[in-house]
Specification:
mainly alpha; 0% strand
Length: 182
């Protein structure tokens, strides 16, 4: 048993533990979310960012609550995809050959899940503000866009992993071709 196998097994177990923990936290959070009417708290978090006129025109409707609850659930579960992607990468690397098709797909999935997480963090805030004000009178509908440096860094990391997955695809085909010559 080589050190790569041991380290990837250990990291896969760690990711599995984090997945189980995150699912438990997610279920608990959903229970808290719906039992404590977290939609009002989410709306209050964006409330201070609205202009005074838009605030005066905002009404709390059931459709707004459903939209905001859905957006909050998306933003909460997006990091779970990263844990699943990391679990897949460590599981694929446990086989010992980083250029197997399973390894290539898992690296690409991790990159795509990181990109999806970063994009969800960038997109959720403007959509939430728009969801709060979509039924306001004309001129009081707001769209607020805020791009954080951390989100851009996470987005770049995800894009780099997608590129690495693409490079691994070519490397896997070269490795397969080399195996056929021998």
């Amino acid at each position: 048993m080589n050190s790569t196998y041991r380290v990837s097994t250990m990291l896969k177990g760690l990711c599995l533990g984090f997945q189980i923990l995150s699912v438990g936290i997610a279920l608990f959070s959903l229970w808290v979310f719906f039992s404590l009417n977290m939609t009002d708290q989410i709306m209050d978090a964006y409330w201070g960012r609205l202009s005074e006129d838009a605030r005066a025109a905002v009404t709390y409707s059931p459709s707004k609550k459903i939209i905001l609850q859905s957006l909050a659930a998306i933003s909460f579960f997006a990091p779970v995809l990263i844990l699943i992607g990391a679990f897949r990468v460590f599981g694929a690397l446990k086989g010992g050959d980083p250029f197997r098709p399973q390894s290539v797909r898992s690296v690409r999935f991790l990159g795509i899940s990181i990109v999806a997480y970063a994009l969800s963090r960038i997109i959720i805030y403007p959509i939430s503000v728009l969801a709060m004000t979509y039924d306001n009178p004309e001129g009081l509908i707001e769209l607020s866009i805020a791009i954080d440096t951390n989100n851009l860094v996470v987005l770049m990391i995800g894009v780099i992993l997608v590129i690495v997955g693409h490079v691994f695809t070519h490397a896997a085909s070269v490795a397969d071709e080399n195996r056929q010559f021998v």
